[in-house]
Design brief:
The complex is a heterodimer of chains A (508) and B (511). With 508 residues, chain A is mainly alpha-helical. Helix content of chain A is 73%, strand content 3%. In chain A, β1 and β2 form a beta hairpin. Classes of the chains: A mainly alpha (508), B mainly alpha (511). Chains A and B meet through α6, α7 and α8 of A and α17, α18 and α20 of B.
Chain lengths: 508, 511
């Protein structure tokens, strides 16, 4: 028996959360340091896991299984494929960064500091669990429990309208989750009372059953991701959440939706996936355009970033439902890059907002004069977000678009228009905040006397480095993703189209 | 006239749990008569607990028994033993709440129920006099009636048990120490409507007797395919029986008493009703439908299914509008009755076992919930208005956390018993092709999450109001009840396999 990586990885944050919660309230520094070191240790463990993963080996590796509720065929089964692995790495990477970025978030809220970090760590536990679970019941458990720490993070430590945002977030996700529960139970009944992913993948269902089950799962994931028209909770939650939490919410938690589609909807219900693919593509394309247009019109920085995410999730959705290996690989890589780029953008915006004391774009203007370094970081984050070549999001967006173009030109063309809009919302936002006419009110803002601090530099540096590194050399990640994507496509029963053009050229 | 009257054979061991309970309850009445008032509480509470524990031991010792006794009037089989055991265990936990006296002088009960409400004498006794101890024998009679109710194998025995369990409950509802008028109103309402329901039940028995010529379930079952009488008798009779049972279970449209009674009754009694009465009512319903009328499944399922859907949706929607925590819990208990009904309507083995699991899981959680309600007090007793709970998370983080956990369990978040229980009944219903019930259940769960969240928002996310009530330090008894309730809720959510195994083994009716 090899080392139970995934169990340890899932349990470790929870243990950390317990310790943090037990630490004395009057020693906030100790709490923060412990949480940071602990999350760093988890990151190191994840790196070890990555190095142990064999891209050319089995589809699912590090499999562990323990009995849980034998009467229902439920077990603690953990395993990871390449797609889940990159997501695990993303969480483990973002966590210490977010903790570092949230160093003072809880102090200002007049609420318990240990609770804040305990909630962050328990959130990490559920996020790791949801990606590592291989048993559908277990997946569902993590999928739902995840809401609880996030709810309290937004509701207790958030900004204006935090209660409204927290409740809306919870109810939206719970409603989606409950429909998925009905589908999970339905799957369990027709699939012969098992929750084992591998057994269920090989099970056959009648066409009608399969379609209903697909819709149950898809609705939950579409709300989680979120796809248009289930997205309205995200700007509220993203706008009200403390920035660190928002970075996790948009950077990682929303990926559970797209991950769920890749891991559950497509392999379990291949026929229904093909049947509903046009619908999903339409939703995704509408999301790209609609999210981008709304982002252009936002005056609140955090809401603006949230809307850009909706547009980005549209790209991910297009890539998934195009059913080509390039597009799907692009989508998975997009999930990683979006976590890095939007996470970075959220954190930088948070730094600006903390200094200005307002998240409204109209309260800024020429702020780069006061905080040049921060403005530079914002520019980098913005350029990453609009997928400038040389940055890693470009690689994924390009893959999605060429992969889609080979099978569905209309969708690809419309989606490409989204890139132009992306340039619009990012550049215009930068122009109105850090560049452009200086806002005289900024003279009096003390916060802006201080440029990027060492702590903040430590927060943004690893993200920028990775964005640039993967922009030039995405191979390490793509190598891990590719086999899993091929396997998923095989599950759906789709193969890449033959490059016909090349053949005819050769025939001449 | 040489024929000797043959006494029916009595399996005393099998009957021992109810015999013990009835006996101890009778002794309790004697205690009321002969023991001085000053030490009655100290005698009654241990006596009652001892009786319940002894009855529980006897139930456990009967495990696996599968007999009819008292000339087929009483069935001792898996479901009856399991449900009896559940009623007794939940009864013990609620009795801990009932026996609590450290929260306010003299406990949650009035000294003399007959004193006119809102008079000087009433205020005086509310402030000083020790509460009546008759609640203990009353509670035991009610519990004994419930145990008989879930074991009754013919309709007449069932009716007698129904009355035995109902009358003490009506009385106990009227015994609240404070807000006497509300309490009396609750009792009167419960009594009047309960009597109507009993009358329906009795009329139903008469019609069924007209159809089948017998009142025991085996004969009814045999008569359904063979009787030459009009099936109208059967259908109307069954509907009337169902009305009687669904009234006790608080299903829509027979639920209107629930919020008022839950609100007016002393909170420990509310806990007893929400936990134990629900088990008994559904235990009776399960036996009637499965043993007596299984062959009519195609007839009753659409109707009862409609009632289940209504129960879930109406309970959930009305819970959204509540501003009083006890009424909120009452509507939530109505919605939960709908979920159990979903399991019952599967009419198969997994439906039976999952309904039983649900009842136990819900019982523990609801007792803990009402236990917390008894703790949040101000000078006028319990502060049940939701606005008074604002900011409770700051003042007493522990109880706010406990209540949050309970709310999440009610909302069916995984790792709580609420989730495993819902999973069980929905699974059973899907196995029986009752997808529509599951869809309605899912929709109502989503609605129901909102009022639960609102309570959490109140406690944590709202700023404390000026007059936030204090949270009393619970006495040992309430603390024990809370711990049992919360631990059971967590355990049945995280490690449900043991109880699942028990319910699955028990899910076998004798006919």
């Amino acid at each position: 028996m090899s080392f139970p990586y995934l169990t340890v990885l899932t349990a470790a944050p929870l243990v950390g959360a317990g310790v943090v919660a037990a630490l004395p309230k009057d020693k906030p520094e100790l709490v923060k340091r412990f949480a940071f070191v602990w999350s760093l240790a988890i990151f190191v463990l994840t790196v070890v896991l990555w190095t142990q993963f064999k891209p050319g080996g089995d589809r699912f590796q590090f499999k562990e299984s323990y009995d849980w509720i034998p009467q229902w065929g439920v077990s603690f089964t953990f395993a990871t494929d390449g797609i889940a692995l990159v997501m695990l790495a993303l969480i483990a990477l973002l966590m210490p960064i977010v903790i570092l970025a949230s160093w003072h978030d809880a102090d200002e809220s007049r609420r318990s500091v240990p609770t804040y970090f305990a909630l962050l760590l328990s959130l990490e536990c559920t996020l790791i669990g949801v990606f590592a679970a291989q048993d559908i019941f277990l997946f569902y458990v993590f999928f739902e429990v995840m809401l609880v720490p996030m709810y309290f993070l937004i509701g207790s430590y958030g900004g204006a309208r935090k209660q409204y945002a927290a409740v809306k977030f919870f109810l939206y996700s719970l409603a989606g989750g409950l429909f998925m529960l009905a589908a999970v139970i339905g799957l369990w009944v027709v699939g012969g009372h098992t929750f084992d992913w591998q057994k269920l993948v090989s099970a056959d269902f009648s066409t009608t059953t399969e379609r209903w089950l697909f819709l149950g799962f898809f609705l939950a994931f579409a709300i989680k991701a979120p796809f248009f028209p289930f997205h309205t909770w995200l700007p509220d939650a993203g706008g009200a959440a403390p920035v660190g939490t928002a970075a996790l919410l948009v950077g990682v938690m929303d990926k559970v939706g797209t991950f769920g589609i890749l891991r559950y909807c497509l392999p379990l219900f291949p026929d229904a996936s093909r049947y509903f693919a046009p619908l999903a593509l339409v939703l995704a394309v509408v999301g790209i355009i609609y999210g981008a247009l709304l982002a252009v019109g936002q005056n609140d920085l955090k809401r603006l970033v949230s809307y850009t995410s909706i547009a980005h999730f549209g790209f991910i959705g297009v890539g998934i439902f195009a059913f080509t290996s390039q597009a799907m690989t692009g989508s998975v890589f997009y999930m990683v890059n979006h976590g890095l780029a939007t996470g970075l953008l959220f954190l930088v915006v948070g730094m600006l907002v903390a200094r200005r004391g307002s998240a409204l774009v109209s309260d800024f203007g020429g702020a780069g004069k006061y905080v040049p370094k921060l403005a530079g970081v914002l520019l980098i984050a913005g350029l990453a977000s609009l997928a400038l070549p040389g940055m890693s999001p470009f690689v994924s967006e390009f893959l999605v678009l060429i992969g889609t173009f080979s099978v569905n030109k209309t969708v690809a063309v419309i989606a490409t228009a989204g890139i132009i809009l992306a340039a619009g919302y990012v550049l215009w936002m930068i122009q109105r905040t850090t560049q452009g006419t200086p806002n005289p009110a900024l003279e009096k803002v003390d916060g802006l006397r201080r440029d990027l601090t060492v702590r903040e530099a430590a927060v943004v540096a690893p993200l920028i480095a990775l964005i640039l590194f993967f922009g030039f050399y995405p191979k390490p990640v793509l190598d891990v993703i590719n086999p899993a994507v091929q396997a998923t496509l095989h599950d759906v029963g789709k193969t890449d189209p033959q490059p016909t053009l090349v053949n005819t050229e050769a025939g001449k | 006239m040489n024929d000797k009257l043959q006494l029916p054979h009595l399996d005393y061991a099998a009957l021992s749990p109810m015999l013990i309970l009835f006996g101890v309850a009778a002794v309790g009445v004697l205690v009321e008569g002969f023991v001085p008032r000053s030490i009655r509480h100290r005698v009654q509470l241990p006596l009652a607990l001892l009786g319940l524990v002894a009855a529980l031991v006897m139930v456990i010792r009967q495990g696996g028994k599968h007999v009819l006794t008292a000339s087929t009037a009483v069935a001792i089989d898996g479901p009856s033993l399991f449900l009896s055991g559940s009623i007794i265990v939940l009864g013990i936990v609620s009795l801990l709440l009932i026996g609590e006296r450290s929260l306010e002088t003299g406990g949650a009960f009035v000294a003399q129920a007959a004193v006119t409400a809102n008079t000087e004498a009433d205020r005086d006794q509310a402030a000083r006099a020790p509460g009546t101890t008759e609640v203990f024998p009353l509670a035991l009679f009610a519990l004994a009636g419930m145990v008989l109710f879930v074991s009754a194998n013919d309709l007449l025995t069932m009716f007698v048990a129904l009355e035995v369990l109902s009358l003490p409950l009506y009385l106990m509802c009227a015994l609240a120490r404070r807000r006497r008028l509300l309490s009396q109103e609750a009792a009167l309402k419960y009594f009047l409507l309960g009597s109507f329901a009993s009358a329906f039940f009795l009329f139903g028995i008469a019609l069924i007797y007209g159809y089948a010529g017998q009142v025991d379930f085996k004969s009814i079952d045999a008569a359904i395919p063979s009787s030459t009488h009009s099936t109208t008798l059967l259908n109307v009779g069954l509907s009337m029986l169902a009305i009687g049972l669904l009234f006790k279970a608080a299903a829509v449209p027979f639920h209107v008493w629930t919020p008022d009674v839950y609100h007016g009754a002393p909170t420990p009694v509310t806990a007893l009703m929400a936990a134990c009465t629900k088990v008994a009512a559904f235990g009776g319903l399960l036996r009637v439908l499965t043993v007596g009328f299984e062959r009519s499944t195609w007839d009753f399922r659409p109707v009862l299914g409609g009632i289940a859907v209504l129960t879930m949706l109406v309970g959930a929607i009305l819970a959204v509008t509540q501003t009083d925590i006890k009424r909120l819990l009452a509507y939530s208990s109505i919605a939960n009755a709908g979920y159990v009904l979903v399991g019952v309507l599967a009419v198969n083995k997994s439906g039976l076992s999952s309904s039983m699991f649900y009842l136990v899981a819900y019982g523990f959680t609801v007792i803990a919930a009402f236990g917390v309600v008894t703790l949040v007090r101000d000078a006028d007793g319990e502060a049940t208005h939701l606005s008074r709970w604002a900011g409770l998370g700051r003042r007493s983080p522990v109880y706010a956390a406990v209540f949050t956990f309970i709310m999440l369990a009610f909302a069916g978040i995984p790792l709580t018993s609420g989730f495993t229980a819902k999973f069980g009944v929905f699974g059973a219903a899907l196995e029986a092709d009752q997808t529509w019930l599951v869809i309605a259940g899912v929709v109502s769960s989503a609605i129901l999450a909102f009022p639960y969240l609102r309570v959490i928002v109140m406690m944590y996310l709202s700023e404390p109001a000026e007059n936030t009530p204090t949270v009393s330090i619970p006495g040992a008894l309430t603390a024990a009840a809370l711990v049992i309730g919360v631990v059971a809720t967590l355990l049945l959510g995280v490690w449900p396999r043991s109880l699942l195994e028990v319910t699955q083994n028990a899910a076998n009716f004798i006919r």
